[in-house]
Write a structure and sequence with these properties.
By secondary structure, the chain is mainly alpha-helical. It has 6 helices and no strands. The protein has helices spanning 2-15, 31-41, 44-66, 72-88, 95-120, 129-167.
Length: 186
């Protein structure tokens, strides 16, 4: 159930790249949330397979529709979501750490992907600290959609998993493990 939930959400997230901007304002996307969720509820390797497949599909959709070449460092930014999910959210259903994970993932993505934009000179900011600052400043409106998308989609995925695992898939429910016995297994 968890794999199907992550893969289904990943398919929808990748396909959302084809939606017009009027329907998907401010860079609203669910890809980071899917990476965070998949890594938190699956092992890291299956989560990376889902995330990589989703990113390949999204980039292919964008290339076919717009002829645009995505930036390679954005993939590294999405990897941040998976690492946060695997490292900090594997054993929790608590909304506070999950929300912090979504915020942390979106901040890491913002910093990494916009550094990549500046490095590749997607727009002519210039190779200087002032140019880097201009690049980050210009990206702030897009961060709003990334953050909102991450928070909403993360809440939806983790809530759906909690409800489904209690109602129909009890074998996939998280078990409370005392802190002294919990070991991270990636």
């Amino acid at each position: 159930m968890t794999f199907l939930l992550a893969a289904g959400a990943g398919s929808l997230a990748a396909g959302s790249a084809l939606l017009p901007e009027a329907v998907r304002p401010w860079n609203f996307a669910a890809i980071g949330a899917v990476g965070l969720f998949a890594a938190a509820r699956l092992r890291l390797l299956p989560a990376l397979v889902i995330l990589g497949t989703m990113l390949l599909a999204k980039d292919l959709f964008i290339f076919l529709k717009f002829g645009w070449q995505p930036e390679p460092l954005s993939w590294l930014g999405f990897l941040g979501y998976a690492l946060i999910g695997a490292a900090f959210l594997r054993k929790t259903e608590s909304p506070f750490p999950i929300a912090l994970g979504a915020i942390g993932g979106s901040l890491a993505f913002f910093v990494i992907s916009n550094f990549g934009s500046w490095l590749m000179q997607a727009l002519p900011y210039g190779y200087s600290l002032a140019g880097l600052a201009d690049c980050y400043e210009a990206a702030i409106p897009f961060y709003r959609g990334t953050l909102v998308g991450d928070l909403l989609c993360t809440a939806t995925l983790f809530t759906a998993h909690a409800v489904l695992s209690r109602a129909w898939f009890p074998a996939e429910r998280l078990q409370a493990i005392p802190a002294h016995q919990a070991e991270e297994t990636w």
